[in-house]
């Protein structure tokens, strides 16, 4: 594409102007069929083109009654171009003054889609993505009106959830197509303090309202969402999760029980594999399993595992090193006796409770409470990634093995996703990173949708964000994060992305599969009881309060010591 200022515009050819016509009440209004002419096309390329806009005309529209027309010509706003009997919609990405023509703006635009023209009004209807016929240089550029946008954003009968109002209007509702959004994953991005948690709660509440028999699992690392979903969901934490340790696969067992590195790690893992298979073989549940492996989710006793490790060590001759066996046995004994791990490694979790566990976590049936909030905030930090890995893998494995059954699609929402799917520069291999990356790549084939919520998209593993078909971006303050999101977004949204640093709190740019065209939305306000507990503390007010500090400290110490919340 040539440089913006390289066109030689004939001086004799003026830009199109608005031709006023008298209305019935005597005022001057533009013809409805023609709309507001603001410029013309000067260059066409496959995905984007260049147009010139008249500064004076744009200035005259600033006082227009229609807020969408007031925005005409601004970066992030839309324009329309007639091609035959269709209207082509484009988004303004960049602007600059023309080098030699005063009062002329040269703007780069990205094509969004096209719609048919209503003969009487000239408005757009039956809008669809993609472009079948391009305009030619010299085609007139018109301002888009609120009536046009209403047609573009109008639901075409697909299931959708309304989340707010399309900027800059105050009456066009911004909606997300649920099937398209969940079918190809979605990501909600935004710096701390932009209202990200409340926005996540809003979207999930709307989905729950639409599908009260749905199946949603949310990983909540800060305990923020428990209060928000107590009315339409189930909350699980260290007190009631009761995640059986034997549901871990072999790799997850190694993450918990093997602490060594290098060559020693491989030796420890080999010993654990042999002893674990033997322990599972002693289980009654293994009797009906034709091909028992170390990954089979079969109940076994931790005491059986330590006994087998002890016996194997007893069989060694004097010259063989017993250190690997001792390391494994002492680590298993340590975890068994640590009350912090009781939610997972309690002796009470040896029964075959797999069916009951999956039923409660996956909400099968949902009974009007379609969302499970998994509060991992009180879990020991060293085991949290493994817990998230086990839960995520159970979702994926269930979907694989239930492929021949009536479909029950699931949505897995991961808050603080950069913790669990970090890029290669931050962390090495981990089971949680691998399973979430695999769900991002393959989940939709099996009816598993992934929702990623993060404040640091640039810390996410390479390629994961690009697997998200719908991206919802709030304000991002970091330049690296902004660049990362721009690279993942489709071409037509680039103009919107330039406004990401300028978004207000609780404003979001939506683009991708879940919306007809990229939109900027002012989000709805959630009822108090549906909001997450993520309000920022008001230091100036809270530091004025005093009294009762001794009792506060006693209560906190009691909870602290008992590791309860």
Automatic annotation (TrEMBL):
Biased amino acid composition, Polar residues: 20-30
Any one GO molecular function term: ATP binding
Pfam family, one: DUF87
Protein name: ATP-binding protein
tRNA processing in keyword set: no
PANTHER family: HELICASE MJ1565-RELATED
Region Disordered, residue ranges: 1-34
Gene3D superfamilies: P-loop containing nucleotide triphosphate hydrolases
Keyword hit for Nucleotide-binding: yes
Keywords noted in UniProt: ATP-binding, Nucleotide-binding
Domain Helicase HerA central: 161-395
Species for this entry: Parasphingorhabdus halotolerans
InterPro entries: HerA-like (IPR008571), HerA_central (IPR002789), P-loop_NTPase (IPR027417)
CDD domains per record: TrwB_TraG_TraD_VirD4 (cd01127)
